[in-house]
Write the C-alpha cells for this entry.
Amino acid sequence: MKKLLTIALLLALVSALALSACAEGGDALARIRERGTLVIATEGNWQPWTYHDENDVLTGFDVEIGTLLAEGLGVEPDFQETTWDAILAGVDAGRFDIACNGVGYTKTRAEKYSFSTPYVYTEIALVVKGDNDAINTAEDLNGRTTANTASSTYAAIGEQYGATVTPVDDLIQTIMLVEQGRVDATINAKASIDDYLSEHPEANIRIAQILPQGEPVAYPVRKGEDTDTLIAAINEILEAKRQDGTLAALSEKYFGADLTREG
C-alpha cells in the first residue's frame, strides 16, 4: 500500500510539473495577453525611427507602429530602451517580445528569428565628409574605415566592400566621427540621414551614393513554434494598417515619403 501511495504521489508531482511547464511555456501570444503588455525593445536614439522629442517623450515611426501593434493585440505597449547590440540578443533570450527599431530583414537573421512581413523598404546611403571627393561609390571603401553599430546590416555591407568598421553607439556619434575625419564614411538608412540633415543643415557631410540594394525592414520575434500565432497576429495588424492607409501616413509623417511598398 505504501508503495502504491508513493507511486501515486510521484505521478501527481510529475503531472503538476508538466502543467507548470506548460503554463510557463505555452503560446507567446497567450502569455502576452495574460500579462497585459507587449514588451518592445527599442534604442530611443535613432531619429526618426525611435527617439525622444523636445519634452523627452519617446516617439518615432517605430514607436507609433509598436503602439498600434500592442493595441491590436489588446494589450499595452511596454517600451524598453537599450543599445542596438542588446536588442536582438534580448529578443533571443526572451527579455523582449519584439524589436521595433528599423531592423533590416536578412536571410542570416531569419535563421535565428521569425520576422513579420516587411512594413517599410529603406534606401541605403553611403555618407562621407562634405569635402571628401575620394569616396563616391561603395567600391571606394576598400581599405578604408566606416562607423556603424557592430551587429548592424550596415556594418556588414561596409565589410563586404572591404572597409574596417569602427563600432559606435548611435547615429550622432557616427556623424561626429565622419565630420572629424576619424572614419572615412558610414553606411546608413537614407531616411535617417535626411532627417539628420533637416535638423542639422550645417552638418559637414554628403551622401556620396544611394546603394543599389534596398533593405526590407520587419519586426523580429524569438524563433519557435510558440511564436507562430504571435507573428500571424502581427502580420494581420500590419496588413490592416497598410490597407487603411495608416502605415503610409506614418511613413509620410516621419520620412516625408511613402516607403511602405517595395520599389
Notes: The domain at 124-213 is CATH 3.40.190.10 (D-Maltodextrin-Binding Protein; domain 2). The radius of gyration is 22 Å.
